[in-house]
Amino acid sequence: MIAPAQSGHFKALQNWIRAGAARGSFDVDLASNSTESAVFFANLRQVLQTGVFLQQDRSGRIEPRSASGYVYWPDDGDRTRPIGFGLFKALADACFELWLTGVDGNERGRGHGRAMLASLLRTPAGRLAYVVRVNRQGPDASTMLHLVESLGFRIERETPAQYWLVRTDAPPAIAAALRHARLVNDSAD
Domain boundaries in the chain? Predict the structure, then answer.
């Protein structure tokens, strides 16, 4: 089951993201109490409250982006709290990126990733999520890559840090734009 993420889910999302960052699945700075981490989590809290993510472009300008999040409970009905999440961020008009996603470490390896991703892609933002990034250095990179490819995405661009995938039914202009885009913060540290 998928439900919209709300302010009350912030602490769980923060804990999952910090744990994933400590494992190398997300930017390692998110595991610490750095300034960058504090800004990111303040921005995440804002996403859950307002549906707006503030993103800095290459020139340093801050621009608002539509964003939405969902939490996931498996269909077994035995859970009192969600065990996973997915966050979407607008890339352009009528195009979203599946931006961040994760499943509680204690629940991995039980098919929840596939079920959650399939459910996420059926949400309003998910139906317009034509782009997914996979961190190449993450410990779960091959699993995530396999999952999103099995759900209809193909690698469109590879950089030292990430695989950029586009859904096979995406408008051709989206894949072309991704191939030629100047990417921000895409280095393998």
Answer: 2-180
